[in-house]
Amino acid sequence: MMRILPILLSLALGPALCAGDFRPFANFLLSSHVKVTGDRVTPIPMKPIVFHVATDGVRVRISAEGNAEASSTFEIYRSDGVGRQRPGEATLEVIPGIQAMSKAGGVLRHLRLTRESLTITTFPGVSDHTVITQALAMAPDAATAASKPVPSASATP
Predict the structure, then answer these.
(1) Is the pLDDT of residue 19 over 60?
(2) What local confidence, expressed as pLDDT, does residue 90 receive?
């Protein structure tokens, strides 16, 4: 009986433990999408997109509003903060945030995530360009209204 107890507990509690793997972190509104080729920066016109970000502490999942089943998952490799340099200042400050990466189909993507912003840098394997997507945090009640982004400094995700 004692040998079967752990199995019964895992069968009974398993779905409950896995059901909430990813917890909502924040919503972000696309602010810029550019392609960098050599020394040229080309803006890519995009309509406003709301990104829903969730995490389980090891991975970060990002999905666009209205398309939850099509998501991107990044593996967190650094959670001790990210560097930021303010315009006009020479010093680099470290703010709470994480860095994560994803590699699929020969494409490497890097994620920089703070409470204020989300930046995804895409490095295609057989191309000479890099694509940078930036989004700013939205107020919690503005996620469905897609209103103005509101930066807020807070704890690490």
Answers:
(1) no
(2) 87
Q: Among residues 49, 41, 39, which one has the least CA distance to residue 118?
A: 49
Token readout for 88 is: 């006009």
Contacts of 91 (CB under 8 A, 6+ apart): 85
Question: Are 136 and 109 a contacting pair, CB within 8 Å?
Answer: no
pLDDT at 148: 46
With contact defined as beta carbons under 8 Å apart, do 133 and 33 qualify?
A: yes
The Cα angle at residue 30 between residues 104 and 148, in degrees rounded to 5: 155
User: What DSSP character marks residue 147?
Assistant: -
Q: Which amino acid is at 125?
A: G
Name the residue among 74, 80, 88, 83 with its Cα closest to residue 25: 74
With a cut of 70, say whether residue 28 has pLDDT above it. yes
The pLDDT tens digits of the residues spanning 122-145 come to 998 878 899 999 999 998 765 444
First to last CA, the chain: 42
Burial group, residue 107, by CB count within 10 angstroms (0-12, 13-18, 19+): middle
**Class of the CATH domain delimited by 21-142:** mainly beta
**What residue spans define the domains of the chain?**
21-142
